[in-house]
Design brief:
The complex is a heterodimer of chains A (about 325) and B (about 425). By secondary structure, chain A is mainly α. Chain A folds into two domains: about 60 residues; about 240 residues, MetI-like (MetI-like fold, Orthogonal Bundle). Chain A is about 75% helix and about 0% strand. Chain A has 13 helices and no strands. The mean pLDDT of chain A is about 85. Chain B has about 425 residues and is of the alpha/beta class. Chain B is about 45% helix and about 15% strand. Chain B contains 17 helices and 13 strands. In chain B, β1, α2 and β2 form a beta-alpha-beta unit. In chain B, α2 packs antiparallel against α13, α9 packs across α17 and α16 runs antiparallel to α17. The longest helix of chain B is centred in the C-terminal third of the chain and has 18 residues. The N terminus of chain B is likely disordered. At the A-B interface, α12 of A face α3, α10 and α16 of B.
């Protein structure tokens, strides 16, 4: 009995000592790490987390950028979900964009990655060239270029006229403008492609050798070996690209001149949010819009993760 | 690991810090430091900076930094700076936004500086009035202008169509437009731009019908039938190919360089008269200005002379007096007037107008004469648009596009326009 109590006491003391020295050891071991992390950490706290929390507060106010904000409760959220036709329009455009651009981009990226994986000469060169659009794609210059390509007298129509098609001004026609933006997004396939390429390299070649000895066709090899072994990479790319697509802003902003037109056909969610905040002085309302977008992205991502256990194959 | 600093490094670092702090506001500044913000093109920036240099030469110790952006980037930037308590001292302000900013307390009332610091004695009283909100003066007009059609004279001659006059009606313009398109002298070229979504043009139309866009107490001042007939008139122009098709018009982004006239798609376009100089700078063919078409031969009062833009002073400014002094210099100094020309509109001060009139070239004379000769085509200045009017303009453009692309009938569009604007005004 006594012995047990004694043991408990020493254990307690011991743990105290451990806790104390653990801190010290942690600091000694990781101090320099944290020091190096500090610039990022300060940026994250000051420029990301801080503003995010402020915007959460503002979303419950009527802040108009100039007068001090007044608390309005959930009024902004109620209005967005019940009485804002433009919210619905923006949501529709954004979902269309996500649903079209993400799969096409991934398929395209995978095809190019597989072509490059065939052991082409000058691989590093091609890899760099194909990656280039991803670096440039989000930029203003490319959006301006896109305007020129898809305008009524742009290059695309000049090419089409050779085969006898008189195309409209694609970027300024409400039925087509969104597709020019999807095309712009697909064109920036570089970063998922690089990741696919790395994923393809991980697949052991002896599997393919064994399969072809057994007489499996190329298609069957792709379907039974490449695709299943690549699912973790596909999953990662899909999640990242979906989040990116929800957040797309620059192309629509430049191509429509900030209006989201013609007739709201390119009114991305972020563009609507921007208009409300900076065009119509409704920073509080725009903050609420932003938090709803966060929620939507969170739901999509959670859904992807939940579904992943049924189709993502981790082979360890 | 210890961090050691040698004496030399310390001195060097200290000097760097000192020079950095000079960049911060006011630390080692001269007596007064003014910040200017305006929208416009590079030529406007050159003129503005030259006036700032003139002012600095006469007021030693003042430093002035100017910044300019395009129209659509300007308003987000201004709103952000005002919200961040970092507003520029002198703000270029538009008639459409002056109420929004003044009522929110972002602008300084200027009447207490008159007439000693700010002397507007020889201004047209109606134009001073245009800068007032709730009885206080918040903006000093930088020039008068009026809405106008810009006409490519060469294209009309090529097509064998006579110039429109101050008696031309919408009906006649429609016929002229169809003729220009039919003549087919240029590739993909049409009579006129599709103005169905242009607010000044629509406002002019309802004013000719004895109505207005908004009442002084922030209500809508036209009816669904006015709007429906407007949309219907344009639907007929479109059908007759008198104006550009909708996907061409939709390329227009409220800038001179995206206007159908500039892009070589139409012979006639719509603008504010002070933009004429800007249009002529980028279009090779000789241009001229004409008034908006009439709804019938003896119609009057659709136009008005309005302040093209204002200079306002920020309520947050730490150099209020200096800022007011700069504004006064901008609108009252003959040297400044010579530099500014009519690029921001016709000078409001009579003395400055005389200075400018004596030195104008042929291009500059066109807007001056146009505004001076409007006669009874011009009526009184409408009250400043209420908050929400900026969005009202967006709604008009959007419905016009929906009609043009065949998604809505003109009759329905008219009703929707009135409904939506009423809703916007109620929300404020």
């Amino acid at each position: 009995m006594r012995a047990t109590a004694d043991r408990a006491a020493t254990a307690e003391q011991y743990q105290g000592v451990v806790a104390d020295s653990r801190w010290r050891r942690l600091l000694a071991a990781n101090g320099p790490g944290y020091l190096f992390l500090l610039p990022w950490l300060l940026g994250f706290l000051g420029l990301t987390l801080g503003p995010a929390l402020v915007s959460l507060y503002l979303s419950f106010t009527d802040f108009d950028m100039i007068r001090s904000p007044e608390w309005v409760g959930a009024a902004n959220y109620v209005r967005i979900t019940t009485a804002d036709p433009k919210f619905a329009a923006a949501m529709k455009v954004t979902l269309t964009y996500v649903v079209l651009s993400v799969p096409f981009k991934l398929i395209f990226a995978l095809l190019v990655a597989m072509a490059l994986n065939k052991g082409v000469r000058g691989l590093t060169f091609y890899r760099a060239v194909f990656y280039l659009p991803s670096l440039l794609g989000g930029s203003v210059a490319i959006a301006v270029l896109w305007r020129q390509l898809f305008a009524g007298d742009g290059l695309v129509n000049a090419a089409l006229s050779h085969i006898g098609i008189q195309g409209p001004s694609w970027i300024s026609h409400p039925s087509y403008s969104i597709y020019t933006l999807v095309a712009l997004s697909v064109w920036q396939f570089g970063s998922p492609m690089i990741i696919f390429l790395a994923g393809l390299r991980q697949i052991p070649t002896d599997m393919y050798e064994a399969a072809s000895l057994d007489g499996a066709s190329k298609f069957r090899q792709f379907y039974k070996i490449t695709l299943p072994l690549l699912t973790p990479v596909i999953f990662f790319n899909a999640v990242v690209q979906t989040i990116d697509a929800f957040k797309a802003f620059t192309p629509a902003f430049i191509i429509s001149g900030g209006s989201g037109g013609p007739i709201n056909s390119t009114l991305f969610y972020t563009l609507y949010l921007y208009q409300e905040a900076f065009g119509n002085f409704r920073m509080g309302y725009a903050s609420a819009l932003a938090w709803i977008l966060v929620l939507i992205i969170a739901v999509f991502t959670a859904f992807s993760f939940l579904s992943s256990r049924y189709w993502v194959h981790y082979d360890d | 690991m210890t961090f050691r600093v040698s004496r030399r490094n310390f001195v060097a670092g200290g000097a760097t810090l000192l020079s950095l702090s000079a960049l911060g506001p006011g630390a080692f500044a001269a007596d007064a430091r003014l910040r200017l913000l305006w929208w416009g093109s590079q030529p406007r920036a050159d003129r503005t900076n030259k006036v700032s240099d003139l002012y600095k030469a006469k007021n030693s110790g003042t430093s002035i930094t100017g910044e300019f952006l395009g129209w659509s980037d300007y308003w987000p930037r201004l709103a952000t700076q005002v919200a961040g308590r970092n507003a520029p001292d002198v703000i270029q302000m538009d008639y459409r936004y002056i109420v929004e900013y003044a009522r929110r307390g972002a602008l300084a009332p200027l009447e207490s500086y008159m007439p000693s610091k700010l002397n507007l004695d020889d201004f047209d009283p109606a134009q001073i009035e245009g800068g007032k909100v709730d009885g206080h003066l918040y903006g000093v007009s930088l020039g008068a202008n009026s809405a106008a059609t810009v006409v490519n004279t060469v294209a009309l001659q090529e097509a064998g169509v006579e110039m429109p006059t101050n008696k031309t009606t919408w009906e006649e313009l429609g016929k002229m437009g169809a003729e220009i398109t039919k003549a087919g002298k240029r590739k993909g070229f049409f009579g006129f731009a599709d103005g169905s979504g242009a607010e000044p043009l629509f406002e002019n139309y309802v004013r000719q019908r004895g109505k207005a866009l908004y009442t002084a107490d922030s209500k809508i001042a036209f009816g669904a039938d006015d709007a429906s007939e407007w949309f219907d008139m344009w639907a007929k122009f479109r059908e007759a190919q008198a104006c550009v098709p909708p996907d061409v018009q939709a390329l227009y982004k409220d800038t001179i360089d995206t206007a159908p006239l500039t892009l070589g798609k139409a012979a006639i376009d719509y603008a504010h008269s002070n933009q004429f100089v800007g249009f002529q700078a980028v279009v090779k063919d000789k241009l001229t200005l004409n008034n908006y078409p009439l709804i019938k031969a003896d119609s009057k009062g659709g136009h008005y002379r309005k302040p093209s833009m204002f200079f306002s002073v920020s309520a947050q400014s730490k150099a209020l007096e200096q800022a007011v002094d700069y504004v006064n210099f901008f609108v009252k100094d003959p040297e400044a007037a010579k530099v500014l020309d009519v690029e921001r509109g016709i000078p409001e001060s009579k003395a400055m107008r005389d200075v400018v009139a004596g030195m104008l070239d042929d291009v500059g004379k066109i807007p001056l004469n146009y505004v001076a000769n409007l006669g009874d085509l011009a009526g009184p200045l409408p009250p400043p648009p209420p908050s929400g009017a900026g969005e009202g303009q967006t709604v008009l453009r959007q419905l016009a596009e929906q009609v043009a692309f065949g998604q809505v009938t003109p009759a329905d569009a008219g009703k929707q326009l009135v409904d939506e604007i009423t809703r916007l005004l109620a929300r404020g």
